[in-house]
Specification:
By secondary structure, the chain is mostly helical. It has two domains: 125 residues, no CATH class; 251 residues, no CATH class. It has 16 helices and five strands. The longest helix is centred in the N-terminal third of the chain and has 32 residues.
């Protein structure tokens, strides 16, 4: 009788697992066939999960996904150990082993279905650049140099205003989680696609599990949580938190999540957020400039304020401790994951934020400066103001704006940039 019940239970587990897998693959298939469906799902259905599951998880001061991971590992190992002991003592047969295996199958199928609901379909939605009207175009090395010079000024302006420790390294002395959610909500006032509920981002209890993979953050589709590496150098944390929160609005493309994080940080009322956003985008852009025009990079690099150097040195030292085989394997896994989800550039997609920043600078910042100059010399005439908006919707209303491997060509700074495998990050060297 017991064996018969066990057989029925195993069949139920198997059928339930197959249904979840089939439903998940069906949603992925439909989303790839129809961007309209993916966009509808991301803007109408997915926010329901964020508003319910996200609010529930927000009640816990710790990362539920992290704790769940540890508990799941312990339970799997203990149950496997008990099964092995019973097998040795001949108190368990094939039915019990099959039941254990079917339990794992059902768990995996359930997690896969959650991934599809809260992440997988969103990869196929309309991009942020499309919805905001920011179109990336070809640009020259000279354009990139100009952008890097502009960013260097932005970094220098905020570098002397942040709190620093005795070694000159920036320290966060604010309730970061609160400011991150506020920064994203503020961005949502100008971008309806970013409006909505934002739970607080959470630092991991054991950040080492991310550090050894060269990750600065991870979005958990299983609990709808934005997690960040709480052990890394502080200047990375505000940018990382906003990056992870952008995934809760359905924007999974890494370069766009980076750009959204940059917008949120740069528009924040808090100087530490602005410094974080300025420095991270400077690192990204300078890394590309180093590749395409070393002389230009060297010229711009010499103008960086000395107050910034301790942050870059501390960051470089921190990540150097975690270089190794685990990071390399993690990078390859993330590269495969990104390509499987339609990001053909894989981990290189993180660098595409530079394209968006250059486009923003050329289409918005330059025009804004020209407009301000026209005002100052009294040449403003009716209708000129409307030209400043371009097609970038409301981006000019206010000022400011889930794995990758580090680059060669050390500039004396090494930063982490997200790398995703559900929302991950990685470090980069310039």
């Amino acid at each position: 009788m017991k064996r018969k019940r066990l057989h029925i239970t195993n069949r139920i587990k198997g059928i339930a697992g197959c249904i979840l897998l089939a439903a998940g693959f069906a949603l992925l298939f439909i989303s790839r066939l129809s961007q309209e469906f993916a966009h509808w799902y991301s803007t109408k259905v997915y926010p329901v999960w964020v508003g319910t599951t996200g609010r529930l998880m927000n009640l816990f001061p710790f990362s539920v996904s992290e704790v769940f991971l540890y508990i799941m590992i312990v339970i799997i190992l203990l149950s496997a150990g008990v099964l092995i002991i019973k097998e040795v003592r001949r108190k368990a047969g094939k039915k019990e082993a099959c039941s254990w295996g079917m339990g794992l199958f059902l768990l995996a199928a359930f997690l896969f279905f959650l991934y599809v609901l809260n992440c997988g379909v969103n990869y196929q939605r309309e991009s942020f650049s499309e919805s905001s009207g920011l179109q990336v175009e070809n640009y020259t090395a000279g354009d990139l140099k100009e952008v890097c010079q502009w960013l260097t000024l932005k970094v220098n302006e905020t570098s002397s205003e942040v709190e620093r420790d005795q070694d000159g390294v920036m320290v966060l002395d604010i309730p970061m989680e609160k400011y991150a959610a506020e920064a994203m909500r503020g961005l949502g006032e100008d971008y309806p696609e970013l409006a909505g509920y934002y739970p607080r981002p959470k630092g991991l209890l054991v950040p080492r599990i991310l550090s050894i993979q060269n990750l600065t953050g991870v979005y958990s589709p299983f609990t709808v949580e934005a997690n960040y590496n709480s052990g890394m150098i502080d200047y990375n944390i505000p940018f990382t938190a906003c990056h992870e929160l952008s995934h809760l609005r359905g924007f999974m493309q890494e370069e766009e999540a980076n750009f959204i994080a940059y917008l949120a940080c740069s528009r924040s009322d808090n100087v530490q957020f602005r410094y974080s956003g300025n420095l991270l985008r400077w690192i990204y852009c300078m890394s590309v400039l180093h590749t395409v025009d070393y002389d230009a990079w060297e010229e711009v690099r010499q103008t960086l304020a000395p107050e910034v150097e301790p942050d870059l040195a501390a960051n470089r030292e921190y990540w150097a401790r975690y270089d190794g085989a685990v990071a390399e394997v993690s990078n390859k896994v993330n590269d495969t994951y990104l390509k499987a989800n339609g990001q053909d550039d894989g981990v290189k997609s993180y660098d595409r934020m530079v394209d968006l920043i250059v486009a923003y600078y050329l289409k918005v910042i330059i025009r804004r400066q020209e407009f301000a100059t026209m005002q100052s010399i009294g040449l403003m005439v009716g209708g000129v103001a409307t030209d400043v908006r371009f097609s970038l919707k409301q981006i000019t209303r206010k000022s400011g704006i889930g794995m990758m491997r580090r680059r060669n060509g050390d500039v004396s700074c090494q930063s982490e940039i997200r790398r995703r495998g559900s929302g991950r990050k990685r470090k980069i060297r310039i």
